[in-house]
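quick q for whoever's on today - can somebody do inverse folding on this one?? i tried earlier but teh output was garbage lol. tokens:
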């Protein structure tokens, strides 16, 4: 799985490990890494997993070359701890995040996407201070949405997507949540969103969540499964309304662009793998009841929220099939969709769509 590894470690473990998966975002990667380097928390490390990414930046550099150029001789002049790992086979975002977290040495994990960046210099130090002050397993902050796209033809839709995503980010419960109020807040009252980026996680909690997730090839909805298990086991959450994170849209696999290959379509449909894992966990009555005390009982409201979100993803895939998949691939794409979600389930959602039109 691993092709090459580069690293430089300091003697003491870092306070925060910033985990960055990379796939086909080379033109934007340097900006992301420089925003990490600029953070004023000295006890930090970058853990970067290049998931067999085929791209290069405008200088012709591969992702690994960009990482080494930025991190080996940082502009601050201070040596940085980092790990750079390249997969020789694309494993998807879920397994790439898992690889990064398991290789991280920090007390806390901070997740970044490689086409995003941090504004200011005090994001990591401030989140870490809040984590230690409030003994928090999760420290949540919010961010601002932006787009690097400049095409006038897509400006209206782009602005709509930016506004819609910003509304989601604005849901950020400040202050303390404890126990089952954390997962209820995430899935039922929706007082904060489930994106991993912008949050600081106690590493032990993240690893505990990973232990419940089997090897899964997935490129979509990976945040949903991670945050489901993280909030299931978390004891203390603290939220702040500070906006350090800058989230870019229209640059990755989740962007609203034409789908002209079955490989890309498989990636879009891979959200089904996330809900298959969660459903298997919920099929065990002992898990739902919280037997053994490893987490509180899972309420019917949480389960209903998961079912509703699952329905949303199937509906969204059907809409993407009609609006984004090129006509010559439509029939094959529909068969792939049924393979992922199940024929009966897809047809049920289709019927629901028809009755609401």
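ok took a stab at it. sequence:
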């Amino acid at each position: 799985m691993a092709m090459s590894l580069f690293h430089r470690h300091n003697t003491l473990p870092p306070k925060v490990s910033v985990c960055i998966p990379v796939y086909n975002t080379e033109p934007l990667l340097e900006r992301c890494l420089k925003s990490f380097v600029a953070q004023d928390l000295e006890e930090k490390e970058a853990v970067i997993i290049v998931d067999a990414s085929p791209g290069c930046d405008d200088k012709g550099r591969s992702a690994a070359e960009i990482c080494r150029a930025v991190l080996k001789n940082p502009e601050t002049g201070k040596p940085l701890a980092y790990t750079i790992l390249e997969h020789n086979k694309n494993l998807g975002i879920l397994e790439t995040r898992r690889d990064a977290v398991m290789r991280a040495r920090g007390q806390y994990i901070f997740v970044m996407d490689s086409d995003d960046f941090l504004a200011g210099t005090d994001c990591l130090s401030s989140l870490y201070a809040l984590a230690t002050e409030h003994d928090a397993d999760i420290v949540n902050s919010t961010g601002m949405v932006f787009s690097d796209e400049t095409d006038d033809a897509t400006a209206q839709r782009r602005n709509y997507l930016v506004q819609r995503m910003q509304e989601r980010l604005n849901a950020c419960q400040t202050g303390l949540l404890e126990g089952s109020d954390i997962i209820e807040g995430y899935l039922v009252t929706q007082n904060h969103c489930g994106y991993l980026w912008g949050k600081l996680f106690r590493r032990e909690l993240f690893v505990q969540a990973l232990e419940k997730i089997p090897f899964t090839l997935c490129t979509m909805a990976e945040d949903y499964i991670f945050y489901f298990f993280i909030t299931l086991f978390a004891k203390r959450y603290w939220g702040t309304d500070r906006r350090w994170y800058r989230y870019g849209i229209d640059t990755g696999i989740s962007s609203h662009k034409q789908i002209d290959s079955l490989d890309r379509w498989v990636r879009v449909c891979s959200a089904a793998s996330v809900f298959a894992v969660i459903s298997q966990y919920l099929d065990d009555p002992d898990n739902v009841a919280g037997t053994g005390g490893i987490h509180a009982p899972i309420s019917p409201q949480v389960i209903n929220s998961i079912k509703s979100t699952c329905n949303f993803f199937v509906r969204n895939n059907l809409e993407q099939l009609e609006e984004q998949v090129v006509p010559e691939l439509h029939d094959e794409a529909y068969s792939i969709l049924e393979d992922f979600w199940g024929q009966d389930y897809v047809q049920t959602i289709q019927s629901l769509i028809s009755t609401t039109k």
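fwiw The chain is about 45% helix and 20% strand. also The longest strand covers residues 236-249. so keep that in mind when u check it
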